[in-house]
Model the fold of this input.
Amino acid sequence: MVTSARSEKKIEKPHEWRQLKNGPWVSESIQTRLDEWCPKLFGYHLLKLGGLSCELTSCNCNIQHQVNLDIQNPLHNVIADGYDLPFLEKSFDAVIMAHQLDYCNDPHRMLREVDRVMVDDGYLIITGFNPLSLSGCRA
Done:
C-alpha cells in the first residue's frame, strides 16, 4: 500500500524553539551535533531554512555567507516560503532544515525546491523527530 506524504491537514509550524515542548532541550541536542558537523562543511553559501534553523548557531562553519529564511522568526534576513525559494538554481552549497519536514504539508515539494537551489554534491542537514519516540508522538 502506497500512501502520499502530502497532507491536507493544517499543520501549525513553530518558528521558535520555545514554541515546542522541550524545545530548548531539543535545540541544545541538535546544536551539539551541528557543532561537530559545521567545520566539515565547505562552500560559499549556506541556507538555514525555517525559524528553528535560524536559531541554530553556525559560527564555526567555514561557509561565511549564511542566509536565514523564515516568515516570522526575527532572526531571518530573507522572508519567504520554503515551497518557493527566491533563489537561483544551484545557489547554495549547504542547507540546514531543522524540523521543516515534520511541520510541512508537502515534504516532497519542499525537498524538490531545496534540491533546485542546492549545488550538486552539496550538504543537506535535516533534523526531525523520530515518530516512534515520546517527542515524536507529541509533534
User: Anything to note?
Assistant: Helices lie at 23-37, 51-54, 107-117, 134-138. Residues 62 and 137 are 36 Å apart (CA to CA). DSSP finds four helices and four strands in the chain. The beta strands are 45-49, 65-69, 92-98, 118-127.
